[in-house]
Amino acid sequence: MSSVRVEKLYKRFGHVEAVKGISFEVKEGEFTVLLGPSGCGKTTTLRCIAGLEQPDSGHIYFDDEDVTPLSPAARNIAFVFQLYALYPHLTAYDNIAFPLRAEGLPKQEISQRVGEAVRLLQIEDILHLKPRKLTSGQKQRVALARAIVRRPRVFLLDEPLSNIDAKLREVTRAELKKLQKSLKATTIYVTHDQVEAMTMADKIVVMNFGDIQQIGSPHEVYHYPANLFVARFIGSPGMNFIPGSVEERNGRLGVVVDGAYFTPPWQRSRKLP
Ligand SMILES: Nc1ncnc2c1ncn2[C@@H]1O[C@H](COP(=O)(O)OP(=O)(O)OP(=O)(O)O)[C@@H](O)[C@H]1O
Ligand SMILES: [Mg+2]
After folding, report:
1. Cβ atoms 140, 86 nearer than 8 A
2. How, if at all, do strands 4-13 and 260-262 pair?
3. Which of 10, 13, 38, 163 maximizes ligand 1 atoms within 8 Å of its Cβ, making it the mutation to test the pocket?
4. From the alpha carbon of 36, which atom of ligand 1 is closest?
5. CA angle 8, 42, 204 (to 5 degrees)
6. What is the rounded CA–CA span in Å between residue 227 and residue 208?
7. Contact between 204 and 216 (Cβ < 8 Å)
8. Which H or E element spans position 13?
9. Which residues pair with 208 in a beta bridge?
10. Is 240 exposed, middle or buried (0-12, 13-18, 19+ CB in 10 A)?
11. Whole-number pLDDT of residue 13
12. Which is more confidently placed, 257 or 272?
């Protein structure tokens, strides 16, 4: 597995600036979530990391290797899409084995690697079925198994659970996190669902309008939001906002709301220098 570094990544489509020069790092084995509302540039960022999109400027590094000029195939990443993208005419087994056959690996190695992945995901009993016979949860597992067998440097997942019903999503979320931990897989996971981000991430990159708003652990972005956008976006129910101004009185900082002056408890015993 590799670490990933995104440096000043910029990408526009016509006059739309989808990603405005963002930088962040993902450590080896870390589960990083790109979180933000629809259209904020999450998928574009992920596609640039995968090599499916060429950035207008900026660089992507895997460990210390600049992979920006490399094709998706040469980057050795696994990309799991929202819509599974399984081959409808192939059985689950053949879907999972597909990338290994494409690499030309010997048959025995293929069956060993597929065996490991399907045991991990507990889908041994559906390997003979074609996608149309599978439930959405099973399809997603087959897609995940196909990603795992490749032993990629980095896992990239774009809203992989959004097509699964709510109950199963909860279970799959927990399983996915367990799987990621046991594989020590460097993972970048895109979602607009803050619960998903809070429950799975080691690190959250909060985005809006193509920019990063805050990078931090779930605890940090929840308890210490960097700005109003993050404060509003994270947490359920959301935070309340009351307009006011910060003022100094008698050497202490306080807040004035509707003409009334409040000193927060942690300021009461503290005099300004
Ligand atoms: N191929 C494209 N051609 C033109 N505009 C695009 C293209 N891909 C993305 N965009 C625009 O770039 C912006 C960012 O899109 P992106 O798909 O990265 O957002 P997102 O955060 O993944 O949103 P969602 O949660 O809806 O998937 C949007 O305004 C989108 O319309
Ligand atoms: Mg998207």
Report:
1. no
2. unpaired
3. 13
4. 21
5. 85
6. 12
7. yes
8. strand 4-13
9. 211
10. exposed
11. 97
12. 257
Q: Is the pLDDT of residue 174 over 70?
A: yes
CATH 3.40.50.300 in the chain is located at 4-233
As a whole number of angstroms, the distance between CA 100 and CA 223 comes to 45
Distances (CA, A) of 133 to 126, 152, 192: 9, 28, 29
In angstroms and rounded to an integer, the radius of gyration of the C-alpha atoms of the chain is: 22
**Rounded Cα–Cα distance for residues 229 and 241 (Å):** 11
**Residues 40/208, Cβ–Cβ less than 8 Å:** yes
Tell which CATH classification among 3.40.50.12280, 3.40.50.300, 3.40.605.10, 3.40.1010.10 matches the domain 4-233: 3.40.50.300
Contact between residue 252 and residue 268 where contact means Cβ atoms under 8 Å apart: yes
- What dihedral do alpha carbons 157, 6, 195, 80 form, nearest 10°? 0
Place of tokens 């065996």: 115
Q: Which residues line ligand 1 (CB under 6 A)?
A: 13, 16, 18, 36, 38-44, 192
Tell which one of 10, 12, 16, 82 to mutate to probe ligand 1, the residue whose CB is within 8 A of the most ligand atoms: 16
Nearest-CA residue for atom 16 of ligand 1 = 41
- pLDDT level of residue 22 (50, 70, 90 thresholds): very high
d(CA 189, CA 73): 20
Q: Measured between alpha carbons, how far is residue 60 from residues 24, 34, 55, 169, 254 in Å?
A: 10, 16, 9, 31, 45
Residue carrying structure tokens 């404060």: 231
Contact (CB, 8 A) for 225 and 234: yes
Confidence (pLDDT) at 160: 86
